[in-house]
Amino acid sequence: MQQCSSMLRMVDLRGQYEKIKLEVDEAISQVLCSSAFIQGPQVKEFEKHLSDYLGVKHVIGCGNGTDALQIALMALELKAGDEVIVPAFTYVATAEVIGLLGLTPVLVDVDYGTFNVGVEHIRRAITPRTKAIVPVHLFGQSCDMGPILALAEEYGLWVVEDNAQAIGAEYRFGRQGSVKKTGTMGHIGCTSFFPSKNLGCYGDGGALMTDDDELALRIRMIANHGQREKYRHYLIGCNSRLDTIQAAVLDVKLKYLDSYNAARYNAARYYTDRLRKLDPQGKYFLMPEEKDYGTHVYHQYTLKIRGESAGAKEGRTRDRLQEYLREGGIPSMVYYPLPLQAQEAFRDIAKIGGEMLGVSAELAASVLSLPMHTELTRAEQDRVVERIREFFKL
Ligand SMILES: *Cc1c(COP(=O)(O)O)cnc(C)c1O
Q1: Which sequence spans correspond to the domains of the chain?
Q2: For the domain 257-392, what is the CATH code?
Q3: What residues does ligand 1 touch, defined as CB less than 6 Å away?
Q4: Which of the four, 52, 89, 360, 362, has the lowest number of CB atoms within 10 Å?
């Protein structure tokens, strides 16, 4: 097999594949031999294994994570003009599908420490037209779901979790309370198997999770042209199925998900230990915060770079640091450079939910995600940390 260079990468899908190549190749080859490319038996098997892993009654595969969110909202039968509350600091897909369905995205701010939407942000945005909330477990850590679910119950709102970045993470309800996996707490959970996600396939893929039999049936129908039996269409749906080859790959990788997430966690620990020694007071940058109500599966390891704010003369410190890292051969990414309220596509359709979105704007100007993947070595992490030390002259 062709070797790839040992360049430091944001993600290293190739290195991960090499370790499971025999199993994955065998699984793909079985699909090729059977030629059941659409809804082959591997899809059902993977759905069953993922539902066992998550502890949820139904898992329904679909074409990608964005479709999962769209199908979830379609299954709830919302009407044009209904409001759906969504964080302003997230990947565009979360809010895009709300607009696509003619619903109104109501943007709310997030918590500076965790990047996640909190119950108070949501409470202030509720109106008589509010029908649903889409909390996003950003960068791999659960939102504080207990209070959010209680608020949703109080107002009779649907909760659709965007779990694209946190599969395998857990949340604990209260100190001694029950523990649930993210994506299984709301009425519907959505996830993405985009290759770089914590559980990624080798193309596009996604899934929905629910404990509700009726919703599960509707979701399954919507994802497959609204049909239950072939050529009998009960609902307007779409064509969004999980590809059989992708399901076969995912079924292999699911067995390793906990070890992958542990590798990410250990890498995050190492970054944090080393970086804290450089800047114990957090004068130059802040490390990700871990909350004791859950586990963090570090889809991203994201720093907040302190310093002059947007528009300063020499440019933002964050942008200069990113350039300095790049010159040293160290990749980094800004997730996300613009909050949704600053995106042209949302200008005419989004509402701002009851408060200014200052934290989201500040995060967009100061976040920087470092290389984070299952194959990252300590030596590579040392290079990243050393370059950061040089930049700040610490
Ligand atoms: C990746 C992602 C999605 C979309 O998933 P796709 O499979 O790329 O369509 C949605 N929300 C969040 C938060 C994501 O990170």
Answers
A1: 13-254, 257-392
A2: 3.90.1150.10
A3: 64-66, 90-91, 93-94, 136, 162, 164-165, 192, 194, 204, 206
A4: 52
With H, G, I as helix, E, B as strand and everything else as coil, classify residue 239: strand
Pocket probe for ligand 1: among 110, 192, 197, the residue whose CB has the most ligand atoms within 8 Å is 192
pTM for this entry: 0.96
**Ligand 1 atom at minimal distance to the Cα of residue 205:** 7
Nearest CA residue ID for atom 3, ligand 1: 65
* Ramachandran angles phi, psi of 320, nearest 5°: -70, -40
Q: Which atom of ligand 1 is nearest to the CA of 67?
A: 9
Structure confidence at residue 83 (pLDDT): 98
Measure 91 CA to ligand 1 centroid, in angstroms.
7
Contact 285, 332 (CB under 8 A): no
Query: Ligand 1 atom closest to Cα of 204?
Result: 7
| Sequence-distant contacts of 11-20: CB under 8 A, at least 24 apart | 11/196, 11/371, 11/372, 11/373, 12/373, 12/374, 12/375, 12/376, 13/195, 13/196, 13/200, 13/373, 15/373, 15/374, 15/375, 16/260, 16/373, 16/374, 16/375, 20/252, 20/253, 20/256
Which stretches in the chain have pLDDT values below 70? Answer: 1-6, 308-315
Rounded Cα distance, 85 and 83, in Å: 7
How far apart are the CA of 207 and the centre of ligand 1, in A?
11
pLDDT score, position 170: 98
What pLDDT does 294 receive?
Answer: 95
Residue minimizing CA distance to atom 10 of ligand 1: 93
Query: Looking at domain 13-254, which of 2.130.10.10, 3.40.50.10070, 3.40.640.10, 3.40.50.300 is its CATH number?
Result: 3.40.640.10
What spacing in Å lies between the alpha carbon of 383 and ligand 1's midpoint? 30
Ligand 1 center from residue 153 Cα (angstroms): 26
Residue 32: its pLDDT value, please? 97
User: What is the model's pLDDT at position 356?
Assistant: 86
Query: What does the pLDDT look like over 15-36, one tens digit per residue?
Result: 999 999 999 999 999 999 999 9
